[in-house]
TrEMBL record:
Gene3D superfamilies: Winged helix-like DNA-binding domain superfamily/Winged helix DNA-binding domain. Keywords: DNA-binding, Transcription, Transcription regulation. Residues 26-161 form the HTH marR-type domain. This is HTH marR-type domain-containing protein. It holds the Pfam family MarR. Residues 1-20 have a biased composition (Low complexity).
Length: 165
């Protein structure tokens, strides 16, 4: 028998959270993950707005700032996205003057992507946006609770990675 959705309740527990109505047929854990991911991405987008970057583009720049020029295919793996999305993001970043693409000297089929000097002007703002995102995300969570959440998210990531293979 399928579990019926519940009505919203008053805040409960030490976090003050409110139980959400789960659409018929939607699993409550999957629905919660969807809601949290959507809210987190929207908040990241708002915090990044002043940089002119769209969510996801900062991850590419952060990888390039931290690890230097990389093959486009390696950036796909580092940022955990797909090749078409990466190609579009890099094209936009290149058009904005934030990255430069060139052919690999070792493999003419490979494209090397590197951050430009112009991108470095955004680095502090991106780092600050991510620090604020982390602060807002973890407000009210003590270090033990944060560690517990990280462990549970790691477990979910493992389960979903295995399910995808």
């Amino acid at each position: 028998m399928r579990e019926q959705p519940t009505e919203p309740t008053e805040p409960t527990g030490s976090t003050g959270s409110t139980e959400q109505v789960t659409p018929t047929g939607a699993g409550p854990v999957s629905h919660a993950i969807f809601r949290v991911a959507r809210l987190h991405r929207a908040l990241a987008g708002r915090l990044l707005r002043e940089t002119g970057l769209h969510t996801g583009q900062e991850l590419i720049l952060m990888a390039l700032w931290d690890h230097g020029p990389q093959r486009q295919v390696d950036l796909v793996a580092a940022v955990e996205t797909d090749a078409p999305t990466m190609a579009r993001s890099i094209a936009r970043l290149e058009k904005s003057g934030l990255v430069r693409r060139s052919a690999s000297p070792d493999d003419r089929r490979a494209v090397i992507v590197e951050a430009t000097e112009a991108s470095l002007a955004l680095r502090a703002k991106v780092v600050d946006a991510w620090a604020e995102l982390e602060r807002l995300t973890t407000t009210g969570l003590d270090p033990a609770r944060q560690a517990e959440i990280l462990a549970n998210l790691g477990l979910l990531e493992s389960v979903l990675t295995e399910a995808g293979h």
